Batch of 4 targets.
Target 1
Amino acid sequence: MAETGRQEVVKIITEIVATVTNMHLYPPTHPQVAPLVDRVYQSITALLEASPELTLIIVDEDIVFYGKPLPGVGPAGKALIKLLAKKGIERITLLKGLPKEQLFGFLNDLASGDVKTVASRSCIKVGKVSFDGELDGEADDFTEFRNTIIADLKALYYGIRSGKKFAIDEVKHIVSQFIENFTRSMNPLSLLASLKSEDEYTYVHATNVALLAMSLAEYLGFSGKPLENIGVAALLHDVGKMVIPDEILNKPGALDAEERTVMETHPLMGLQYLTQQADVPSLALIAAMEHHLKYDGSGYPHISDSWRPNIVSQMVSVADVFDALRSKRPYRGPVEQDKIISILRHESGKALNPELVEHFITMIEQ
Ligand SMILES: [Fe+2]
Ligand SMILES: [Fe+2]
């Protein structure tokens, strides 16, 4: 990166410090805050247009950028070093494609006295500097752990397809590991996986829905066995998709009426499959069957006019809709978080339980 980039970085540091200072003084929704976030977001995106990433490393009293200390960062530089030291951060990497809400959440974490450890996000990596210069942070450990879960789940789903015995113990093990590895201080959104290839969608989606549904359940006060069962139910909600042909499952476009009918059999297929397995919690059977049944009783499969989905199926539905929208699909890009929130609110009382929607939004915006 050219020397001119260094001036830009100094400007960004000054803007970050100003924004965090204001976030500390005012509530995050205060009109004073938004324009400051917009300004720093614009400066960062402009810089990331020229370079795929921006890494700052703190070495003693210096902020190092591309191997050299930044000159002339002055009081803003000192203030940033202090802010980061409080959270134990020695290194920040911002990546191209950084969404504004991620930057907002990160700056908010820096400003908040309640947040002890700031989690990495998909486009903001934070951590300590180890001797080999690699990142060493809590959230990165989680990323690695989560990726092994996705691989396990993929193996499990393939096993189901090839008629191998279903390993419920493995599913329960995955869930208990999730419960052990995530802490309430992490915003669940920072833990979600992104798709690397389209055929991974089912596993990545199942993992994300489980993380979101468990976070919501924990947020609502569930713990112990019920929380574990909710995790199992969420992880297996789409298990019926394993009998849907790949051409329909991974079709790079909207489904036609006939394909849609096949696709819509997956809740009952899931129920049928899980009913035949031993030791599956009944909540998993219920959620597999009901997760496309809407709060107002519409949706599929139609059971009876008066039938309403179980509260756990309703939690899975909120997580399901959220993750489906935030994921990039062959026929559309990922939906922005603000837009997803307005969709959730629009569906509140119709497809989704209004109280769960509000709790979910509060949880992800904290
Ligand atoms: Fe589904
Ligand atoms: Fe789903």
Target 2
Amino acid sequence: MDLRRSRLEQMLKVLDVDGAVQRVRGGWISTGHPWVYDSERYTAVAAARDRERRAMLDYIAATTCRMEFLRGQLDDAEAEPCGRCDVCTGRYWPTEVDPARRDAAAGLLDRPGTPIAPRRQWPTGMKALDIPLSGRVPEGERHEEGRALARFTDVGWGTELRRILAADAPDEPVSDRVLQGLVRVLADWDWAQRPVAVAAMPSATRPELVTDLAARIAGLGRLEPLGSLEYADPSGPGERRHNSALRLAQVHKVLRIGPDLAARAGQMDGPVLLVDDHVDTGWSLAVAASLLRRAGAPAVLPLTLAAG
Ligand SMILES: [Zn+2]
């Protein structure tokens, strides 16, 4: 939209607020309400903006306490010198950051991994959905506490994970940087027993990413690649449902373990890493873990890129 058009649009919006015009499909119409240019009001607004601009310049050049100045701007009658700002102390505060402190902060933000708790209880109401699951998830069918590289909301990895896993992001192999992040998560993981193999979750939307992730984790850790679980329907469980029972029903109907994976999982003498791109409700991982455990896997450790 060019400048003139956007100015016109702004003007029409102001007139709309004042009740003089009304937006209709394809444009604007006059409401017929009389409208006059309130020059007194607009002059006052312009003067206020002018004062604010000058106040900002004054703040930069301030020779009195900066906090006192700011409180004065907010009409605080008790504004007084703070004793801490650069004007009060006569000390200049540089904007450079001590590298050691920056590294310490980065280390905290970049700390490896976020836990994935196992589901211990099936949701109620599964029988009504024709799924024979109820009560506690049996000890022998649960996964252990897992790890995600980060939550989507995390300051450190969150931005990158939101980009990689965005609905319109291409399905491509995992980057070396993300893989290095996962290696740190694995190194930091205080599991009871080191995993011996890797299985992948099936993915309807990002098969390349998840398959590559599982293969590279297996390669780096010298773990046995077991392949992937399967979806009975290639479109997967369908759009994510936020109701636990409905989500579990979706997953339960399509997630399968093939005979090869089942046979190999049963031969393992240690935990199986179960790799996926992200965990949300945790029902997919719960069902997958139960399939692997019932096939004989001694333990299942979920590992995902993102959580939440
Ligand atoms: Zn001060």
Target 3
Amino acid sequence: MKTDTCRICGSNKIMDNVRVVDRGHGDAKKDLSVYIQKTDKRFFNKFEKGELKAQICGSCGNVDLSVKNPHELWDAYLKTKSL
Ligand SMILES: [Zn+2]
């Protein structure tokens, strides 16, 4: 959820849309993301992917994570439940 103030301390020092990365082989940066499986095959299943973005408070350090495509993920989630 996007806000202009920190929900913990009320500060307005909010850093929005910050990439959340993991360091892979050779120090390569990879965006952390969530995956929801959309099909139930043995091989080559389809996934809906959502890259995590962080909103960080520059006063207390609270971090909130969100994804850009919640609707696509929700649709994929519903499909998974009906498999
Ligand atoms: Zn804060």
Target 4
Amino acid sequence: MSEVQLQVLGSGTSQGVPVIGCDCRTCRSSDPFDQRLRSSVVFSTEGKNVLIDTGPDLRQQLLRSELSSIDAVALTHAHQDHTAGLDDLRPLIFKSGRPMPIHCRSEVAKRLREQYAYIFENPEYPGVPKIDILPLQGGIQCIAGLDFTLIHARHGDLPVVGFRLGAISYLTDANHITDAELEKVKGSRYFILNALRDEPHYSHFHLEAALDVGRRSGAEEVLFTHISHHFEPHALLSERLPKGFGLLWDGRSLNA
Ligand SMILES: [Zn+2]
Ligand SMILES: [Zn+2]
Ligand SMILES: [Zn+2]
């Protein structure tokens, strides 16, 4: 398949980095690499852009990215730090003149109908974002005409979906993945995986667990995302990662 580009819109955990009101050294860092908006990426190839997640920073992220169109959205799961910015898709929907396709699992769709009840009201209020809810299931899902391999994992009690397109795999907010699902990552040039902090967490891989999954994945390079301020600043954390591992940062772009 053609070369795939992954643009990183955000690489931070649910509160972002810095955290409001925190004076830890990571939050006080003046290094731009320590400014992390909520986790989100865009896969691009063959002239199509597919946005993964619509977190609360979406407006700022899209303005910064200079992306002028999104062909479809896919949601990993229904937590606020991945869905709270859905309404900010409106300018792109108005511009294209068609509803935005939103791929998500059925329980995520149910949450959207509750969280965004005004979008689904009848009669329709003018100006609401028109969306088409579409499935996200099975091993391969066609999204905006592109065949994504879906990587199914667990995030505490919730199912969470990751994506592989070409040689780039992306999985965030996971704390458990079966060997069979991890097999789908094998041979990736880049595997983006969540690593929250050093201490174990009930629904996220901590660093040691993420290193273990990364080593078993068979990817050439593993890059961590959904990073919290509990880690030391970016420059120091990068230094202590083993060979073959690195960090995402906001604005980073990968091609494979
Ligand atoms: Zn999250
Ligand atoms: Zn802090
Ligand atoms: Zn989550």
